[in-house]
Structures are given as structure tokens and as C-alpha cells.
Amino acid sequence: MSAVAKLDKEMPVLVVDDFSTMRRIVKNCLKQLGFSNLHEAADGEIAWEKIQQQEFALIVSDWNMPNKMGIDLLRDVRAHDDYKDIPFLMVTAEAQKENILEAAKAGVSNYIIKPFTADLLLQKLELIFKNRV
Q: Which one of 31, 37, 46, 82 has the minimum C-beta count within 10 Å?
């Protein structure tokens, strides 16, 4: 069974970014890959509210956002028993080694530096879900 077979294209995905254009780009890439159950939030605070109201199988989040940064959202998700196992993909312009290490320490599932392609997004998702049962 390939890693792609484990990727449920119907799973609810939350896309978090303060720029609507970037949310649209991420969602379009996911749609291109066959995902259809896409939701969005304009910052980490709104995302946190949505996470508590609805079940998500994947969170794709930017780092730099007003109200609640992506790294803080990641920490909140990992600190909560109900959400700590949700795969969390950071998609950000933050390419500094310190940021990547900070995200890794906080429990990020994978990390993509903008700009990116749908192919790279698929590779990262396959890596995340290949390690899950």
C-alpha cells in the first residue's frame, strides 16, 4: 500500500494564514491534489476556536499572524489532549534554522518554506501520513 492510499482526501483540513491570497493558494494546491473538505481561518486565534468546535484531521498553518502566531497555535494544539495528535504542517516564509528548530521542538509534523509547489506539499503530506496508522 502506498503512502498516497493512506491520505484521506475527504478528511477535514484547516488552512490558517492571515493573507487571504495565501489561504487561497494553499487551498488551490490541496484541491489540485484532490482534497475537498477544506476550511480556513485568518489567524491562530480564529483557528483555535474552530479546532475546539470541529474535528480536523490536518492543520496547515502560517507562522507569522496577528492575534496568535502559528507557533503558538502549534503549542496550544500539542498541549491539549484532544488535539495533540492532529498532524500540523507549518507553511511559512520563516526559513531561519532557529525557527525550524523551534517548530520541531514544539512538535510540528513537517515544515514547508514559501514559495512551494503542489508537488512539494504532496511530498510533505505523504511523509506525515506515512508514519501514521
A: 82
CATH number, residue 84: 3.40.50.2300
Q: Flag whether the pTM goes above 0.70.
A: yes
Within 10 angstroms of residue 50's Cβ, the number of other Cβ atoms is 17
User: Do the Cβ atoms of 65 and 80 come closer than 8 Å?
Assistant: no
State the pLDDT confidence band at 7, using cuts at 50, 70 and 90: confident
Q: What confidence tens digit (pLDDT) does each residue in 62-71 have?
A: 999 999 999 9
